[in-house]
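look at this record:
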Amino acid sequence: MFNLPNIITAGNLIAGCLSIIFALQGRLDLASYALLFAMLLDFFDGFLARLLKLQGELGKQLDSLADMVSFGAAPGIIAFVLLILSGAVSLNGSLSAVLVGDTMGSSMKILIDQYFEALFYGASEYHVVPFHGWYLVLPFISLLIPFFSLFRLAKFNLDTRQSDQFIGLPTPANSLFIISIALTLWFGYGENNFKGLLSEIFLREGVLSTFIVMFSIMLIAEFPLIALKFKNYSLKDNLDKYILIGFALILFLTLQVFALSFIVILYLTISLIRFFVNKK
């Protein structure tokens, strides 16, 4: 039971739990890093299981349970916090008007506390952001992420079509898109350049909620997506994968964390092109 791959899977679970804790404390940077670490562990547990020939039903079930926390619940909570911030922007015109703490993290923690106080005890006139009405409901849109992730992960375990491709958006890819928004906000908000503009666009209520709903539904969509699994390394058989990897590296080296959302969109675009080309 407690072999190395299963312990690494448990580490994936712990990283997801830490991400939730960090997010609710306003530290979206640490929450995002914890999920990136969970993705790394999620890759290595399967790799080591195959290398050490320790694959089994127990490991498969543990992997799904860990993924439900790290790539279902945790990104849902990060999105919950992002929607709280989006509501604050809608109510006050800009996030800078309500960032009253000494740091970005402490300011976000104050907003999160004000939201939960308004949700459970009613809005207070002493708060900078008196959350009320629709803006108390808005963050719950984020629960679509764990809802659809549950069905996505169960379906993946049973669907034999997903040996060399994915059917529907993988939960780690969805999580990567959510944390890309969080990191763009954390490092870009207030900058007088495209990074600041991108963070402001992502925080718009309509944009953020639309992305969350759209990507959540894509988790269970009957749509084939590229899986980075190589049966061989020929250019002819793997052209789409090499194009994806090449452009992703260029984007990341150019834009660092601000490239993550574009990489996920690029992944979906190339998969869509491949689908229609193969269909023809």
Q: What stands out?
A: The longest strand covers residues 165-167. The chain has a mean pLDDT of 86. Residues 23 and 31 are 5 Å apart (CA to CA).
